[in-house]
Design brief:
It is a single chain. The protein is α+β, with helices and mostly antiparallel strands. The chain folds into 2 domains: 45 residues, no CATH class; 104 residues, no CATH class. It contains 5 helices and 6 strands. The strands form 2 sheets. It has a 3-stranded antiparallel sheet with strand order 1-2-5, with no helix packed on it. A hairpin with a 5-residue loop joins strand 3 and strand 4. It is elongated and about 75 Å long.
Amino acid sequence: MIEIRNNQVYSTQGMFVHRLGTDTYFRRGTVLRGDTVADFEEVEAAPAMTRGEYEARVAELVRERYSESEEFAIQRKAINAVFGQNAAVLAASPNDKPAAPNTDSRSASAATSLGEAGLSTGEAALQLDSVLSEYAAYNAFVEECKARAKESQNAHTPDPAEP
């Protein structure tokens, strides 16, 4: 049970106290003006790292393989490839007749988004596949980094009995 007494908040069960809406965990803390018991919760253990620390750890792990500018370049290429698929539709006015259906929409979109440099439809499709493969590899690595950060977060969770 959380108790507030003499401008101090603490758990009568010896558990950690978490200030809701923050990354703040403690055994005993000072009450801010307007704080009530409803602003806190008891938890078994404080996380080994806060959300901000977790996000920083993920970024650090990603930087082992990709620089920030490389990440942005991969993301830009993927966005251009995806939004290029709809570029012709978005650019058409409501009075325009729809284009004849294309059986290979990926190739057509690749020609729109990547083929502006004079590539053939086949070359643009290969380039699109390359961009999407590069993004898939990048995204898989980021997910791996998240899992590694989570593992390191769970490796040491403080014991509530520790002072």
